[in-house]
Amino acid sequence: MLISAILVNYNDRRHLAPCLASLRAELGDEGEIIVVDNASTDGSPAYLASEFPAVRMIANADNRGFGAANNQGLAAAAGALVLFLNTDTVLGPGSIRRLVQTLTENPDAAAVGPALIHPDGSFQVSFGKNVSFAAQFVQKLFLNPFYKRALRRRADPRRVGWLSAACLLVRMDALRLIGGFDERYFLYFEDIDLCRRLAVSGGRLVFEPRAAVVHEGGATTTGRARDSRFEYRRSQLCFYSRHAPPGSRFFLRLYLRMAVAGMAARGSFRGAEGRALRRRYRRLLGKESGVP
Asked: Which domain holds residue 272?
């Protein structure tokens, strides 16, 4: 078994058919597909059992989060290579072959990620350098717009500091060495944390723009913007507490306190749900670890 593809599903039945069809076409007989369902209520488990009986499904009784669910799939995987893939993706023709070839040509690389493309054909920024408060500020304001333009002209692989786990091919032995995903992240930053630990363990990370994958993005967080934003900040603080220098942690917490004050001024904490959200932010910012 060469490749084990692991997908975490949470109420995303509408994307399963095109995603799995493209994945099956790319893998052929050289891989297995494992879907870990995080207690979906949209009929996803029954749909998978009926329409994709060859897919191995692990059904959770509750939503365990992205990293923990991927680790469940990883424990069941038999491949020498592991493909982490979001359910709202469609693999371009030859994309898996290209990613495998890039790993083969770079024996010191632990992981490789493709170019992620919006449905309208524009590029997403799915890679970056090391994460710190200043680096994130520079990337969002300057590098992201630059990369989106540059990717239209340059199609050469390059070494990077992190890759998105929306589509990420990783060597199994490298994952075993670091223990997979850190399950203290529920959603967001778990892929950057994984990449950071892969790099520290000696594995290079390669961005391969000659492999293209369409990624819609936000499929499982649509309609839950406030909760999604909170989870992003929670995971951001969690990552900074583990990997960022003290100055970055200080400025991030200062920025978040100002952001919460701005939310309060705009009336974002009105009503019972708003007050509960404000309490969650207060508890979050009151902990140095960033983990409630």
From this structure: 225-285
